[in-house]
Write a structure and sequence with these properties.
2,3-Dihydroxybiphenyl 1,2-Dioxygenase, domain 1, 2 domains, 5-stranded mixed sheet, 4-stranded mixed sheet, 9 strands, 32% strand, globular
C-alpha cells in the first residue's frame, strides 16, 4: 500500500481557504468535505485537511497558535521545475497569500521559494536537479542564499 500524508490545518475561513488551495493547484475531494472540514488533494499520496477552528478543537485541547505570529512547521512541496516554483508562488499571491516568508534559495542544484496561505501556514516549494549536485556535497551543508 502506498504511504500517504494527511496534513491537518486549522483555518479561520473554510471557503476562503478552499478557494486559495484550489487557486494554487490543489483539488477538492468532496467525499471528505463538509461544513467543518475540506479535503484538498495535492497528489495521490498528499492530502491537506482544512479544519474550522471549532472542529480542530475536538481533536486536541492545545491552543491553536496564530501562524502569522509563530511557526511550528514549514510544509514543503516538490516542483517539476524552477518555473513551476515561480508559478505556484505567483498563484498564491494572486489568491491572497504572501510571497517568501522564508528566504529564497538558489543553490545551483536546488531552487526554492515559499508562500504563506491566508492563515499564515508556510509552504516551501523546491525544484531539485540532483544531477547538478556536486559530488560529495550534501544539501544540508549548503548555506542559504
Amino acid at each position: 500500500m502506498t504511504k500517504m500524508l494527511f496534513v491537518n490545518l486549522p483555518v479561520t475561513d473554510l471557503a476562503r481557504s478552499k478557494a486559495f488551495y484550489e487557486a494554487v493547484g490543489f483539488t477538492n475531494n468532496p467525499q471528505f468535505s463538509d461544513d467543518n472540514a475540506v479535503s484538498m488533494v495535492w497528489s495521490d499520496a498528499i492530502y491537506v485537511m482544512l479544519l474550522k477552528h471549532d472542529f480542530w478543537k475536538t481533536f486536541t485541547s492545545k491552543t491553536i497558535p496564530d501562524a502569522h505570529e509563530s511557526a511550528q512547521v514549514m510544509l514543503a512541496l516538490s516542483q517539476d521545475s524552477q518555473d513551476a516554483v515561480e508559478e505556484i508562488v505567483r498563484k498564491a499571491v494572486a489568491a491572497g497569500g504572501k510571497a517568501d516568508p522564508t528566504p529564497k534559495q538558489d543553490l545551483g542544484f536546488m531552487y526554492g521559494r515559499s508562500f504563506e496561505d491566508p492563515d499564515g501556514h508556510i509552504w516551501e516549494n523546491a525544484f531539485m536537479d540532483m544531477s547538478a549536485l556536486p559530488e560529495g556535497d550534501h544539501p544540508a551543508e549548503q548555506p542559504a542564499s
